[in-house]
Amino acid sequence: MSKSAFDQISELLENLSKEELEQIRKKCMVLGSIGPKQRTSISEMHQDWLLSGVLYELEKRGLGNTIPSNFSIRSKQSFSSYQERAERVRNLFEEKAGIKGSVDKLAFGRVLARLLAKKVDQFAPVSLDTLLRNVGLMPEAFEDAFPGYITAGMLPFMVKAMHNEGTGAIDPE
Q1: Are 119 and 144 in contact (CB under 8 A)?
Q2: CB atoms within 10 A of CB 6
Q3: Rounded CA separation 163/165 (Å)
């Protein structure tokens, strides 16, 4: 980067609010930690509907360039036991919500990933690493957004509404 471009950016930064500077800081941390833009295969995303939701959420937040093209969870030690935690979360929601079809699973994975990102954003910058390391917090994030739905057995109704209305039907905002 030329010195003049750096100077221009520095001047722009001086005029930003604290909230805008925090957003810039988070984006710089993410961009500096993982590398150039690459893609994940569709077949891999459909095998793990939680991972698919996380990758979708990162794309939606403009962080898709942080996902390596050959990304996969290679071992049980990857991302602090992601596989084990994700399996527990998938089993919980599949059992409680009665999610069977892949479309419903993918849509629900997006909802859970969005809720997880909101929760993680309270204590760390949202990134592939932070979302995967904290996938075990998905039930808690869901409970925060929809108190009592899991214990009251309301999840099947939510999934049905989501299925009937499309993937954007459930939004806790």
Answers
A1: yes
A2: 10
A3: 6
As a dihedral over the C-alpha atoms of residue 134, residue 141, residue 149, residue 60, rounded to 10 degrees, the angle is -100
Q: Within its chain, how far is the Cα of 42 from the centroid?
A: 17
Task: Kindly list the domain boundaries of the chain, sorted by start residue.
Answer: 1-34, 36-165
Could you please report the per-residue DSSP string of 88-110?
HHHHHHHHHH---SHHHHHHHHH
| Total residues found in the chain within this entry | 173
pLDDT digits (tens, 9 = 90+) for 48-100: 888 888 888 988 888 877 776 666 666 555 565 788 888 899 888 888 877 77
Separation in Å, CA 45 to CA 15, 51, 103, 105, 152? 40, 6, 12, 11, 30
Q: State the CB neighbour count (10 A cutoff) for residue 1.
A: 7
- pLDDT tens, position by position, 98-155: 777 777 788 888 999 999 999 999 999 998 888 988 999 999 999 999 898 888 888 7
